[in-house]
Predict the structure.
Amino acid sequence: MHSPLTLHRHPMCAEIIEAFQKCHVDHPLKKFFGECTDLKIKLDQCFRQEKALKRKANFEESKKFKERLQAYKREMAEENKES
């Protein structure tokens, strides 16, 4: 099973998605007997790479957010000490 094959959600995999969908259209019965399996494997690999890049970007973003949160907490603690 794969995620929905929308090009705007998976720009990195657009070529493979188009080829996979074309294979399904061109081979309506053979697709059930492995005609499009090679493209499916490439598509799965592409989705994994895409997910890894998104995961890394989200992790970096969360690190920046944690740093800002820690700085804000220190600032609030200093203001409370001054009061």
